[in-house]
Amino acid sequence: MHPVTEQNCSEEAGNTQQADCRTDVYPFPLDAIVLAGTHRNPKRLIAGRNKAFLKVGGQVLLRYVVTALMDAKSIDQIFVVGPPDELLEELAGFPARVRVIAQRGKMLTNCWAGIEASEDSHENDSIMPVKERPLLVISCDLPLVTARSIDDFVARCAKLDNVGLDNDSGKSIAMFAGVVDEAGLKPFHPSKDRLGIKRPFVELACGRLRIANIYVGRPRNLSHQEFLQTGFSYRKAVDWRNVLALTFSFVKSHGGWQAAWLTMRIQLTLMLAKGKGRWYRRLRKGNTQERVEKSLSEVLGGPVKIVLTPYGGLSLDVDDQEDFRILDACYEDWAKIMAAIDPDSRYSNTSDNAGQNAISTTEIIKNTKNGKVDK
User: Fold this and answer.
1) Residue 134 near residue 216, CB atoms below 8 Å
2) Are 272 and 280 in contact (CB under 8 A)?
3) Phi, psi at residue 273, to the nearest 5°?
4) Which of 258, 226, 231, 255 is nearest to 242 (CA)?
5) Is 264 helix (H, G, I), strand (E, B) or coil?
6) Phi first, then psi: what are they for 55, rounded to 5°?
7) Which domains are assigned to the chain?
8) For range 19-31, the mean pLDDT
9) How far apart are CA 33 and CA 117, in angstroms?
10) Which of 82, 121, 129, 173 is the most exposed place for a label (fewest CB within 10 A)?
11) Strand ranges, E, within 186-320
């Protein structure tokens, strides 16, 4: 059992949400794990604080995420993992389905604290074995997240999930990793007359992609979960030391040589992207979605799929002090941009069409400035 601290409110069981909060794509709404742990390295804190409790646009970051999850039709119970005393204070007044879980340490162990708490709450369910029950994992520092962006992502995952078992392994998909493409992030890029955030992309044949901070998965179907922590620790691909460290860690794993080579190949493609010459085009053409998914699946020990979301704000977390400053300054305009996105016209459900049929960036910004945004 796990240290679950209930809110001071009604004692409704999370499972009662299923009857009137069913998603159209999964047979039940998913539990969500919010990662809000305090980093042990003080250099990773922002303004000396756990970023979950920083204010952006006048509101604490964690509240944006929890409120969006509360409003999402695809979400049932919400397990927030972090420092319990601070979380209880910040989340006082939220309903009983928002539960505080004491952090254990690193990102992966904190995630498992939330996963195990969710499993405990469903141990008597007859709908689906706990191991096969998908759940959503999201970071705490996403001020632009909305209920609609969460529901859209869950629906995209479910559509792929409902196709059946993975063709290569014959197993259920273990993890759906959210990504955004260049078109989705372009409205948030800096220009001569406005602030913005621009981060490096992964150069794939299907488009220029960047990881989002949202996942759906069945964690117990990943047999090498330790590499999730490794990948998180070395996720800054702009630093060659991190790329090399990640490459060497892959070499020691099952299927690691292919993953190590692919990591170096993608980094080299990124280095050559500015010139867009012959070698860049040749390398990028070979960086296929299928190759990346296969490599991730082998390293993590379970089927992994990439899922493209049109909501670029899901990739804009608070990585450092500068991100914090820009997100705070731009929050109002950027929230309107997120509200203006029409996921039905933006993409189909796979990243094979990344970048196609994109809303005009100029049109989004123009409509935002003119107030023509659906609330």
Assistant:
1) yes
2) yes
3) -65, -35
4) 231
5) helix
6) -100, 130
7) 4-222+302-369 (3.90.550.10)
8) 67
9) 10
10) 129
11) 202-204, 207-217, 304-308
Q: For 63, how many CA atoms within 13 A lie in the half-sphere containing its CB?
A: 16
190/322 Cα distance (integer angstroms): 13
In this structure, how many other beta carbons lie within 10 angstroms of the beta carbon of residue 236?
A: 13
Question: Mapping DSSP to helix (H, G, I), strand (E, B) and coil, where does residue 308 land?
Answer: strand
- Of residues 39 and 31, more confidence is placed in 31
Phi and psi of 99, rounded to 5°? Answer: -120, 140
Q: Are 28 and 77 in contact (CB under 8 A)?
A: no
**pLDDT tens digit sequence for 155-200:** 999 998 876 655 565 678 999 999 999 999 999 999 999 999 999 8
Q: Which residue has the tokens 């691909």?
A: 237
- Give the tens place of pLDDT for each residue, 224-256: 766 555 444 444 444 545 444 544 455 455 555
Query: 314, 142 in Cβ contact below 8 A?
Result: yes
Q: Report the predicted TM-score, pTM, of the whole model to 2 decimal places.
A: 0.81
Pair of tokens at residue 96? 């009983």
> DSSP label at 306?
E
- Residue count (the chain): 375
β-strands 30-35, 75-82: how paired? parallel
Q: Which whole-number Å values give the CA distances from 107 to 16, 80, 122, in the listed order? A: 30, 13, 23
| E strand spans, the chain | 4-5, 30-35, 55-56, 59-60, 75-82, 98-102, 135-139, 175-181, 202-204, 207-217, 304-308
* H-helix or E-strand spanning residue 155: helix 147-161
φ, ψ of residue 348 in degrees (nearest 5)? -80, -170
* 281 has a pLDDT exceeding 70: yes
Place of tokens 């400035």: 369
Strand, coil or helix: what is 335? Answer: helix
- 151 vs 340: CA distance, rounded Å: 16
In order, the DSSP letters of 5-74 are E--SS----GGGGGGT---SSSSSPEEEEEE-PPPSSGGGSBTTB-GGG-EETTEEHHHHHHHHHHH-TT
Q: Residue 199: what are its φ and ψ, rounded to 5°?
A: -120, 160
Instruction: State the residue for tokens 């109002």.
Output: 332
